[in-house]
Amino acid sequence: MEKEKLRLDKYLWAIRLFKTRSLASEACEKGMVKMNGNSLKASKNVVAGDTYEVRTKAKKWLIQVTGLLHKRSSYAEAIQCYTDITPPEELERISFEAAAFHTGKRLSKVGRPTKKNKRDLDAFLGH
Question: Rounded distance, CA 66 to CA 85, Å?
């Protein structure tokens, strides 16, 4: 049956591990998608029961295919097509990194002086 064949890059995109299909195929080219320690090509056919190690920018996934998803759909549907078997140590590392992540917003009253601070500084310096 032709419908049962599904490319690896299309599958990774459909289950929402990558935002675009081209990012999924690029990850395959760079060796970020592996099976049994071997890098895979984007054109490899996905089979239910396969286990893949996928490195994204945010996380190192270890997933087992439970179903094939040919089209990108909702997150609720997507997570039913794979089982996340990522080791607990990796999940701990990710949560630690998330806790230490700098948002880029400065804390209130820390950093640049406020208008009042500038006036007080000018008064102090005699400007």
Answer: 12
Percent of residues, the chain, with pLDDT higher than 90: 62
Q: Residue 106 and residue 44: Cα distance in Å, rounded?
A: 46
Paired tokens of 96: 């630690």
Neighbours of 10 (CB within 10 A): 20
Burial track 62-87 (b if 16+ CB lie within 10 A, e otherwise): bbebeebbeeeeeeeebeebbeeebe
Cα separation, 68 vs 109, whole angstroms? 52
Query: Helix or strand or coil: residue 54?
Result: strand
User: Domain limits at 39?
Assistant: 2-94
Residue 10 vs residues 21, 24, 46, 51: alpha-carbon distances, Å: 6, 8, 9, 16
* Residues paired with 65 in a beta bridge: 82
Q: Who's near 118: CB < 8 A, 6+ residues apart? A: none
Number of domain units in the chain: 1
**Is 115 among the domain residues?**
no
Does the global pTM surpass 0.85? no
